Amino acid sequence: MAKLIYVAIIALTVASKCLALQCTTPTIIRGAWFSWENKNTLTEIDATTMTNRGTCVDIKDDYHVNYTMVFHREQENCFICVKILVRTVNILEKMESPCISLPDPNVATVDRVCQALDPHQQLITLFSENYVPVNCRSSLEGVWNFAYQNRFKFTGECRHPDAQIRSCQTAGSQFLITNQKFNITYKKCEGMLGTFDGVVEYSCLGDWFVGKNHYFAVANTKESRKDEKYRCFLKNRDDDLFIGVSITAECNTLKTVEKSPERLHIRPVKSEIVEPGCRLPQNFSGEWINTANIDADVFINETHIIETHYPDEGRYRRTIYVCKEQKDTRVLMARLTVDGCQKDYVCFDFVPQHHNLIRYRKGVAVIKDDFSTVCSWVQFQNKVKWRYDLFLKKNPVPIKCPVAGKFNFTQKGDVPFETRILGGVTLSPRPNVYCKENISDFSVCDEEQKEIAIDQNYCLSVDHRGKPLDIYSDPDYKMKCIGFWKENLKSYLITFDELDPFSKYRCWVYQRADLNRVLMSQAIGPFCDLKQTVNSYNYTEGATVAVEMEEYERERDQCPMYFDDGSNPHLNPESHIIQFDFGYFKSSSSSTTTTTTTRYQMHYHLKVLFTCLLIELTRICI
Ligand SMILES: *[C@@H]1O[C@H](CO)[C@@H](O)[C@H](O)[C@H]1NC(C)=O
Ligand SMILES: *[C@@H]1O[C@H](CO)[C@@H](O)[C@H](O)[C@H]1NC(C)=O
Ligand SMILES: *[C@@H]1O[C@H](CO)[C@@H](O)[C@H](O)[C@H]1NC(C)=O
Ligand SMILES: *[C@@H]1O[C@H](CO)[C@@H](O)[C@H](O)[C@H]1NC(C)=O
Ligand SMILES: *[C@@H]1O[C@H](CO)[C@@H](O)[C@H](O)[C@H]1NC(C)=O
Ligand SMILES: *[C@@H]1O[C@H](CO)[C@@H](O)[C@H](O)[C@H]1NC(C)=O
Ligand SMILES: *[C@@H]1O[C@H](CO)[C@@H](O)[C@H](O)[C@H]1NC(C)=O
Prior knowledge:
5 helices, binds 2-acetamido-2-deoxy-beta-D-glucopyranose, Lipocalin, disordered C terminus, single chain, about 10% helix, elongated, mainly beta
């Protein structure tokens, strides 16, 4: 009996040893692979073995992109460490150690054997023999004219006006086979041996990044010799003027774009010309910023909208829209997409321009040039909640603020208003005056009520003549009103402050709470979050601070309260001032234009009048 148990134990240990000496390779690295290792090399990997490496005995998986494996080569009884990096479905890169012998084969683990792996060795690129082409968009998109250099074939640069790289997406289907190929048209340069005429069509095998280096691999569709079929390309995110190309089926010859065996010096080709078919309203013309993308410049004239943005220093990307057809508020525009590729069509839905802003919605881009398709309302993604997007004037002209008057306020928020000197750091100096009461002051009291002045600590006291004592302290913040409107039952205001280091343009939500109380909430940037309400004060709703304001105009201030909820932003704000024609004013205002001061005085008197009336009414009611 004891003997039997003993045998069983031995059998178990042997079995467990055999199990330890086995592993399964991941499916993504299985198959037939071509590489150039000073000669054409074919590597086959199946579930347990790799050509010339033996049987897999141990494997370590890092995030399913790096596999480190140990293979056992039976004939020599040695172990080899192979590290495989999965770059794309069609491309692997590998490095390996020499085959080492181990006294005890049981310790043939990744940790032990892979100590022999030199991490600085050249990576060998493996190209799938049965590759599946992928979409080229992430590798290369656009049309370029190019000049080329080949350090091994000729000296100098061959530039020909007809040499072209063309990688354009056919919109409609991303699985379309033409989206998985691109063409390079080479041209011969007179007197330069090694230059040639010919079109090379490449299938895209996928792309990957190593730091700022952007690699992509291709297969020449017309080439049957394996070593001539596969190539590797290199772009650098900082430099979009050059592309490096390998002249062998290897990527490790491309370390930098400058030192690549073949180098293409590229120049984007202009987009095709589209004849405009309609005209945008004249008052759209000018320079704007897009609040959805504040780093972009927007230029609009009667026929074009040109949006330029700067993804990196010294680089820019431009999208051009050309007016094609217009009905009601909708405008069908041709979009000339990146770098000379073919156009598609987008529908804009505009609100007539007002103040310093254009409100619009943009539909989904489609390939068809047909108003009823492109501009059908289903092209506008109808989320349950949506808001118009905004273009804001680059050099805005201030308008009368929808909230004006003199208010004290209390505030709450992530970024409250603070006492400061505009453009400085020291606290406001104030001569020794005794302040009975300090308040936070929000005033829109300049002559035309176009500028908001905020003073976080304002001395309320007046002298015996009723003149404000605090005539020395400057406001801590000054911002100009440049536009307002009402949407989704909320009133929005855009202000402009040249000195604001974070965002010159700020969006606010505002609301009248009472006869003389106003609530406002300031947003972090130039657009208001859908969730932002007048009470929002923190980043979760896109706001920085909420203020509650109460009017406190004193007789000397001559600063009438004014409120407009923005439901008709197209009205000329100046015409809001209703000029009552009291008989006794006739003589002084016979020329129909009263001066501003008399107008304000009139306002003040009117207000007193109305307040009295109100008090009278309440008394009657009670
Ligand atoms: C994969 O291996 C490469 C080269 O050894 C290394 O640079 C990279 O960080 C690894 N990635 C992961 C996810 O382990
Ligand atoms: C590449 O050029 C060839 C010949 O000019 C043409 O037949 C082919 O459609 C082009 N392929 C692409 C992807 O543009
Ligand atoms: C609008 O600008 C585009 C691009 O700068 C220009 O080609 C076009 O002629 C301009 N249209 C008008 C009406 O000025
Ligand atoms: C701009 O023009 C449109 C019509 O062309 C008009 O409805 C809108 O009120 C104008 N805006 C301004 C601020 O004049
Ligand atoms: C404004 O000042 C008055 C009088 O000093 C005070 O009663 C009121 O609470 C203040 N309102 C706000 C919103 O700070
Ligand atoms: C008002 O503020 C000033 C300084 O900003 C301070 O000296 C003064 O004591 C304050 N007055 C009251 C009543 O808080
Ligand atoms: C942000 O404000 C909302 C109400 O506006 C409040 O419910 C929430 O607790 C606040 N969050 C933080 C982190 O202060």
